[in-house]
Amino acid sequence: MKNRHLIDIKDFSKKEIDDLIKVANDIIDNRDKYSHKCDGKILATLFFEPSTRTRLSFESAMLRLGGKVLGFSEASSSSTAKGETLSDTIRVVGGYADIIAMRHPKEGAPTVAIKNSIVPIINAGDGGHNHPTQTLTDLLTISREKGRLDNLTIGLCGDLKFGRTVHSLITAMSRYKNITFILISPNELKLPDYMKEELEKNKIKYIETTNIEKYMNELDVLYMTRVQKERFFNEEDYLRLKDYYILTKDKLKTAQKNLIILHPLPRVTEIAKEVDDDKRAKYFEQAYNGVYIRMALILNLLEVK
Ligand code: CP
User: Fold this and answer.
1) Which atom of ligand 1 is nearest to the CA of 50?
2) Residues 272 and 136 in one domain
3) Whose CA is nearest to atom 5 of ligand 1?
4) What is the mean pLDDT of residues 62-86?
């Protein structure tokens, strides 16, 4: 039977995403019910780029389902360092594991992987392109915190050019009703044109600004992002832009009481530590939710009932 993969958030319909969120919520409420669902199954985590949350939450997800994990956390400790191609690595690991979560610095690498895989592949981040499982985590968090995914004004702030989490989140949220995006970035780090063209084609409202305070009082969700140092060609540009936005208590003065502040993490300087005590800061809850939505995804792709 043909395997199903998750490479782009569009690989799952809105209904399928809503179902994954339902399962994740059920797992949160009934953890014991799921603790042997993947007995005898193995997840491989192939991380050619650094990660804390995505790799460890995938591994935690499989362990909490009763399965086992294997893998590597940097390309230098795999035979990639000896010149092995991605397609050969994937072909081999498919014989060692039932499902693969992979992160790669090259955009499109997961598309190469699926052509050579006999098991389901999950894109755990490809370059500055997509990060669909972060988006599933974000959607679960927004729906739990706000009680809805429709009728939201979402501010996305920081590196909208290279931020793969932003690209996947905009794609996913564009499928819900009455969404407005406030795109807050320095001019050099604006959302790519191809994404804005997609928003225009689908008649989704968006505003571009460089000013984080201007629309603060209108936001239901503020999604902060790190300036993606690893995607810059020129260190001087990175140093000039890295502290462009620093969210402080003072900047939140005009924000709504029921705003939620998200960040895919890791954070560098873009959210001051003092904001962590604000009850609207939900980025650590967001990171915890990553385990449950990934449990739901593994169950789905392995077709475990
Ligand atoms: N949010 C996220 O992808 O974090 P890591 O890079 O630590 O996996």
Assistant:
1) 6
2) yes
3) 51
4) 95
- The answer to whether residue 1 is domain-embedded is no
Ligand 1 centre to CA of 163 (Å) is 11
Q: Are residues 173 and 280 in the same domain?
A: yes
Contact assessment for residue 177 and residue 151, using Cβ atoms and an 8 Å cutoff: yes
pLDDT (mean) for 17-40 = 98
139 and 281 in a single domain? The answer is: yes
Residue nearest to ligand 1 atom 3, measured at CA = 54
pLDDT value at 57 more than 80 = yes
Residue that the structure tokens 């997509």 belong to: 130
Express each pLDDT in 111-126 by its tens digit.
999 999 999 999 999 9
Q: Find out whether the beta carbon of 265 lies less than 6 Å from any atom of ligand 1.
A: yes
- Residue-wise pLDDT for 145-181, tens only, equals 999 999 999 999 999 998 889 999 999 999 999 999 9
Q: What is the phi/psi pair of residue 156, to 5°?
A: -115, 125
124 lines ligand 1 (CB under 6 A): no
Cα-based distances in Å from 298 to 1, 10, 41, 156: 17, 17, 10, 28
Q: How many domains does the chain have?
A: 2
Whether 286 is in the pocket of ligand 1, judged by its Cβ within 6 Å, is no
H or E, element range at 157? strand 152-157
Determine the Cα–Cα distance for residues 155 and 149; give it in Å rounded to an integer: 14
Its domain, for residue 233, covers: 132-287
Residues 138 and 124 both lie in one domain: no
Atom of ligand 1 nearest to the CA of 49: 6
pTM, 2 dp: 0.95
Looking at the domain assignment, is residue 15 inside a domain?
A: yes
Please indicate, yes or no, whether residues 208 and 108 belong to a single structural domain of this protein. Answer: no
Check if 104 has its Cβ closer than 6 Å to any atom of ligand 1. no
The reply to whether 171 and 62 lie within a common domain is no
